[in-house]
Amino acid sequence: MKKSELRKLVREVINEGWKNTEESIPVGTTVKVNYGKFKGKIGKVSDEAPSGKFSVVTIGNETFTVDNSDLLIKEETLKEYTHGKFKTKMIRNAKNSKGFELRSGDEVELFFPEDKLWFTHIYKVGSSSDAMKMIVQTKNLYLYVKGASKPPSLSSLERMVEDGVSKSVLGKRVEPDGTDEYGSPSWLLVLGMI
Fold it and tell me: By C-alpha distance, which of 109, 131, 128, 129 is closest to 120?
């Protein structure tokens, strides 16, 4: 076996269970540095650069900025925070309580928290910082972004219950108490009918 092949095999074993991502990484995420002075060390993302392409990582008492492509994330964590993201565009300007503004036409990602289906988080694409997100009532999501449907009428909701098939907030067919592949809940769940 050549030295280069052996090095590659050793890297794969050392990094087993860790994956690379170039997307923004949420604050608080445990990461493994894969480059430079701290290569192989594990730390936490303590802040995010405005571009979303760099993260501020803290290891012990040292804090430094790292390109996201040089960070590894545990596979199960990566699956958790990439599930439920739906990319779309804003259709109106909106501002959060911290003064962060999303403008009409901005590309955004939607996240539907499993524990609070009646709220939807809207992030600017490439950002996952809490300061750079908006939280809106899921029933009003259609007022802010493309691709979200209006709440159904009472007769439509009754039909969904009778048929045993519902529509999600993003218009996909789902179980009455289910969510679609983006985590978008059924209207029956959002409106508290189940």
Answer: 109
